[in-house]
Amino acid sequence: MKVICDWKNCKKIGSYKAPIERDNSKKFRLLCLEHIKIFNKNWNYFENMDDQEIEFFIKSDLTWHKSTKNFGSSENFFNILWNNALDDKLNIFKSSNFKEFKKAKVSQTDRDALEVMELNGEIKWEEIHSKFKSLVKKYHPDKNQGNKKFEDKLKKITLAYSQLKKSFCSKTLFLSNNVNLPSLSKTL
Q1: Tens digits of per-residue pLDDT, 141-172?
Q2: Which of 5, 64, 142, 166 has its CB 3.0 to 4.6 Å from that of 14, i.e. a possible disulfide?
């Protein structure tokens, strides 16, 4: 079935979509080639918008019109991840067994995680923790104009930190049965 051009008194075939509303791409009318050219020449997306609305539109276009949160916002994904990654509910990192962690054999996965975090194998937990904080600040998307490359790097760093934290917890618990752990029901 062929659709006739939606232009007044036109009998040609309408093959080209022309929006009816500015922000609704699903509502459109079909026009012929001649009339779509006229329509496009006269179309002004910013019609009836003041300067502030136009400026807001252009700025929000940088983030594909999706809301973003600054780094300090409590709703920011990376802030939530950061807070959970740094939370030591079991007090494992403050335990006296920290020194034993260095003596434990470091797995290839842990070595890879240290490499992602730009660290070497002989390192204290406080240094890992400190390096993680500095890398999160350095590669956070809000600090790098939303650059996807930095966001991907930050995800790798966060996964590396999580791996090291998991390894440290398991090795510390394995090395000592005397670790005084608080009840999980109270901390979770």
Answers
A1: 788 777 888 888 888 888 888 888 888 776 65
A2: 5
Contact 94, 172 (CB under 8 A): no
The residue behind tokens 């730009």 is: 118
What six digits make up the tokens of 185? 């029901």
Main-chain phi, psi angles of 167, to 5 degrees: -65, -45
Helix, strand, coil % in the chain, rounded to nearest 5: 50, 10, 40
CB 69 within 8 A of CB 78: no
Beta strand segments in the chain, E:
16-21, 24-31
Rg for the chain, CA atoms, rounded: 28
Whether the model clears a pTM of 0.90, i.e. scores above it, the answer is no
| Distance (Å, whole) CA 123 – CA 95 | 16
Answer for the pair 23, 49: CB distance below 8 angstroms, yes or no. no
Q: Are 71 and 142 in contact (CB under 8 A)?
A: yes
- Helix, coil or strand: residue 120: coil
Q: What distances in angstroms separate CA 15 from CA 6, 8, 10, 29, 157, one per listed residue?
A: 10, 16, 13, 9, 50
